[in-house]
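Sharing a chain and its predicted structure for anyone who wants a worked example. Both blocks are below, sequence first, tokens second.
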Amino acid sequence: MSNRLPKVAWIGLGIMGSPMSENLIKAGYDVTGYTLEREKLDRLAAAGGTAASSLAEAVRDADVIITMVPASPQVEAIAYGPDGILDNARSGALLIDMSSITPQTSVDLARNAGEKGIRVLDAPVSGGEAGAIEAVLSIMVGGEQADFDQAKPIFEALGKTIVLCGPHGSGQTVKAANQLIVAVNIQVCAEAVVFLEKSGVDLRAALDVLNGGLAGSTVLTRKKDNFLDRDFKPGFRIDLHHKDMGIVTDAARTVGAALPVGAVVAQLVASLRAQGDGGLDHSALLRGVERLSGAQV
């Protein structure tokens, strides 16, 4: 490849995909996008990208194809079949899947793509909507070193902490661990919030001092205002965290790791979803604690 930047196809322009693709455009990349919602394609075009009328059209001339969709079934739907990526991308292209899916789905995708001469990296991210907008995502990658090296400049336009974690599927395994830590952290912060409020303490002051000590965390920094304002506009939906807790509990069973606290929090996420809060931000775990503590939510 010459000095020109690779041509990028971007599939999936949701809460994360839209700002991420725009950061690539800002970095000088030629981005052609495809997604199911017309207004998201209009947004991409307004930002300087090209809207494709089909997935096949989007990927046909791409050097690099990036996918950012909700879960394993969507990855399989866009990868396989006559209208999918593997049948329409050119041999030698690099497919970077940034969705959060099961490690096994990533392993299978890499094997099937390899038969078509398409290289694959699994590269899920952490940092939520804010991290996507600010281009400070943490990117956990699985795949070959040479492919990772080629993709590094693209990752550097999207995130700040970029690490090759091992072979295909490793990025997804680390992402699953990330989602375990985040869910448990949000849950225990929510429990502290209800405890503090019921005790009559100034919540803003309490969270400020807690966040300055050993109890402080990126989760508390990012979610403090959600708790204070009861603002649960989704940066990362409970529905998706429910999916991720399924991935981590299943993967842990497969390798023989016990996740006692993770299992409890997985059930609390599931119960929140069952109560109709699946479309809210994961900081809405606070609503579950409030219900358990007798509040009418």
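Comments welcome. Residues 210 and 216 are 6 Å apart (CA to CA).
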